[in-house]
């Protein structure tokens, strides 16, 4: 009998995470082809959306808005997490957004370093352009377009890092880089057009 207990323990360890999704449940397919079932009075539906699998939990007797999840990598992960939420079990799988945010936090140092290097190269381009007595307008306009693009990209990166709860050190770095881009752009506007343009970002932070 001892070997039966041992085998049973191994199997439980290997597939324990799936028992919550399978034991005592009967997943069916809706008319739309989505996995669905009633669990403790709640209608659970798992469906594909936003490049992954989401769950929807709704009370058929209540007109309140249903609960929608962020997407998971697989249908089974979404099923497991939906049942875990209803039954008060612990969460085991991360959503695609949670995984992406984790990667952003891990890569924040490299991402800000790359953007800093881009800023330095852009400054070198400006220095080279103004090394001539009369820099070509087309050259400065090309640099300005590149500055505008980089400012927009750094603003997007900052928003991503904020959403991922990255370390404040990296948030401060990307904020300063973004501000430097916009300052260069405004100076080029004044030089080329006579009047600096209105700032396109209201989230600039001063150097500390």
Describe the structure in brief.
It contains 5 helices and 5 strands, in the order H-E-E-E-E-E-H-H-H-H.
Low-pLDDT regions: 1-23, 199-208
Helical content stands at: 55-70%
Number of domains: 2
Q: Rg to the nearest angstrom?
A: 27 Å
Q: What do these coordinates show?
A:
The structure is a single chain. By secondary structure, the protein is α+β, with helices and mostly antiparallel strands. It is 58% helix and 12% strand. It has two domains: 18-87; 96-193. The protein has helices at 2-22, 75-87, 96-129, 137-163, 168-193; strands spanning 28-29, 35-39, 42-49, 52-58, 67-68. A five-stranded antiparallel β-sheet has the order 1-2-3-4-5, with helices on one face. Strand 2 (35-39) and strand 3 (42-49) form a beta hairpin. It starts with a helix and ends in a 15-residue tail after the last helix.
Give the topology, please.
Elements: H1 2-22, E1 28-29, E2 35-39, E3 42-49, E4 52-58, E5 67-68, H2 75-87, H3 96-129, H4 137-163, H5 168-193
Antiparallel strand pairs: 1-2, 2-3, 3-4, 4-5
Structural features:
five-stranded antiparallel sheet, 5 helices, alpha+beta, disordered N terminus, 208 residues
């Amino acid at each position: 009998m001892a070997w039966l207990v041992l085998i049973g323990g191994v199997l439980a360890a290997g597939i324990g995470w799936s028992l919550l999704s399978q034991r005592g449940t009967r997943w069916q397919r809706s008319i739309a082809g989505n996995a669905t079932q009633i669990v403790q009075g709640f209608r659970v539906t798992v469906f594909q959306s936003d490049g992954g699998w989401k769950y929807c939990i709704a009370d058929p007797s209540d007109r309140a808005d249903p609960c929608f999840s962020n997407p998971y990598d697989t249908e089974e992960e979404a099923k497991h997490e939906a049942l875990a939420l209803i039954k008060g079990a612990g969460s085991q799988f991360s959503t695609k957004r949670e995984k992406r945010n984790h990667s952003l936090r891990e890569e924040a140092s490299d991402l800000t370093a790359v953007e800093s290097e881009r800023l330095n190269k852009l400054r070198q381009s400006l220095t080279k352009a103004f090394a001539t007595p009369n820099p070509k307008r087309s050259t400065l306009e090309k640099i300005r377009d590149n500055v505008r693009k980089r400012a927009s990209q750094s603003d997007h990166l900052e928003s991503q890092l904020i959403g991922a709860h990255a370390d404040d050190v990296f948030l401060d770095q990307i904020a300063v880089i973004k501000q430097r881009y916009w300052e260069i752009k405004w100076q080029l506007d004044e030089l080329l057009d006579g009047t600096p343009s209105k700032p396109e970002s209201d989230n600039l932070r001063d150097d500390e």
